[in-house]
Amino acid sequence: MKVGVFTAEWMGPSLSAIFAAAGVQPSATVAIFHTADVPTGYTSLNLSYIENSNIIIALKDNNITLTADRGWPFQVVSYGKYGYKWAKWVTRIELSSNSNFRGYWESNGYNNDASINGPAGQ
Questions:
Q1: 19 burial class (0-12, 13-18, 19+ CB within 10 angstroms)?
Q2: Integer Cα distance of 106 and 104 in angstroms
Q3: Strand blocks (E) in 13-113
Q4: Which SS3 state, helix, strand or coil, does residue 26 take?
Q5: Is 0.85 surpassed by the pTM of this model?
Q6: Hey, what long-range contacts does 57-64 have (CB within 8 A, 24 or more apart)?
Q7: Quick check: 91 and 25 in contact, CB under 8 A?
Q8: What are the tens digits of pLDDT across the range 52-104?
């Protein structure tokens, strides 16, 4: 079996900068990503991870504006996380103090941390 390698240069604003401009309530610890396919909340990321890892919302991939199949209008680029944390088709971002929130995959047994070095299940 041949395994392919995909190299991408993701381009877009940092979530930390967006959150700083919007003003974050001190109690917020989690960003919940609502998507066109899962409007109740597809997945979430801890705000500390977003800030420490300089997580962006990609508008472009290799200098090409994202197409519908690649996540338009933008995709969360979650370095070091499994693919289900790379939310596509994001329609809304909610900042919350609900550390118990579980998105679509996490509610179905996937690990909420999703670190590529961690366990796949809960």
A1: middle
A2: 6
A3: 30-35, 43-46, 56-58, 60-61, 64-65, 75-77, 90-96
A4: coil
A5: yes
A6: 57/12, 57/13, 57/15, 57/18, 57/90, 58/10, 58/11, 58/12, 59/11, 59/12, 59/13, 60/10, 60/11, 60/12, 61/8, 61/9, 61/10, 61/11, 62/8, 62/9, 63/9, 63/11
A7: no
A8: 999 999 999 999 999 998 888 999 999 999 999 999 999 999 999 999 999 99
Query: Residue for token digits 């047994």?
Result: 109
Query: What are residue 14's phi and psi, to 5 degrees?
Result: -75, 140
Place of tokens 């998507």: 35
